[in-house]
Amino acid sequence: MKYFVIADEDTALGFSLVGLSGASVHDEGEARAAWDKAIEDSQNAVIIITESVASMIRETVDRYLFSESFPLVVEIPDPGKTSSRDLRSLVNEAIGVSI
Q1: Gyration radius from the chain CA atoms
Q2: pLDDT tens for each residue of 64-98
């Protein structure tokens, strides 16, 4: 089981430092290309995507968010935005295991 991160440059870099692969995106075209790359690899069981990137391709993301098929999609807050929960708890809740 692999994770794939689709996010801004800083977030993608941060996840890469702990061994997760992914793509940094700046616009809708790059977001779609990164999403397609993540979906093509059947080993990617979890896609972690920031809220701002997910909003660029909302229809596509929602198709996976509201289905029971893999991969599991986890939306995380963008850097600098406040959230009532920390990133670890968001991911743990989404995948059902503690990381």
Answers
A1: 12
A2: 887 767 788 999 988 877 655 666 676 666 666 66
CA angle 10/24/39 to nearest 5° reads 135
All domains of the chain in start order, with CATH: 2-95 (3.40.50.10580)
- Amino acid residing at 67: S
Lowest mean pLDDT across 11-15, 45-49, 69-73, 88-92: 88-92
How far apart are alpha carbons 90 and 16 in whole angstroms?
A: 18
Say how far apart CA 33 and CA 75 lie, in whole Å: 18
User: ω into residue 71 within 30 of 0, thus cis?
Assistant: yes
Q: Is the pLDDT of residue 12 over 90?
A: yes
- H helix or E strand, kind and range, residue 23: strand 21-24
